[in-house]
Input
Amino acid sequence: MNRHRPGSNARRRIKARLLKRHGSRCFYCRTPFAAPADATLDHYVPYVMWPGWKTFNLVPCCLDCNQDKGDLLPWPLVWLLLAPAPATPSPAGLGVAA
Output
């Protein structure tokens, strides 16, 4: 798929795949959906930062979570991006002669 929003039939197929992948629950609050129509599609990395409709960047979520997240990065991703890089071990620390 390209950057443009897919048609309604394609969105239904995407939603069905995502609900199967995530167990018919909201990705963020884990609340089960009573019906597939209750789920919305959310771009995990916001569309404004990473345009496209690839399924690896889409998650099913409830309307409240979708609206609360908006165009923000999810906190787990923020923490990952802000975490200090692990120190590179020196060859001596690995038991390798220099």
Summary: The chain is about 30% helix and 10% strand. The radius of gyration is 19 Å. Helices lie at 8-22, 63-69, 75-82. The first helix runs from residue 8 to 22.
